[in-house]
Amino acid sequence: MRVLVIGSGGREHALVWKIKRSALVKKIYCAPGNFGISRDAICENIPVNDLQRLLHFAVKEKIDLTIVGPEQPLVDGIVDLFENNGLAIFGPTQRAAQLEGSKVFTKEFLARHRIPSAAYAVFSDYDQARNYAAVARMPLVIKADGLAAGKGVVICHEPAQAMEALSQIMHKRVFGAAGDKVILEEFLQGEEVSILALSDGEHLVYLAPAQDHKRIFDGDQGANTGGMGAYAPTPFLTAEGFERIQSEIMAPTIKAMAGEDRPYRGVLYAGLILTAQGPKVLEYNCRFGDPETQVLLPLAQNDLIETIFAARSGLLHRVQWRNREGATAGVVIASGGYPERYEKEKRIYGLDKALDQETMIFHSGTREVQGNPVTAGGRVLTVTAWAPTLRDAIDSAYRTVGKITFDGAYYRKDIGAKGLRSP
Ligand code: AMP
Ligand code: GLY
Question: d(Cα 418, Cα 330) in Å, to the nearest integer?
Answer without folding.
Answer: 14
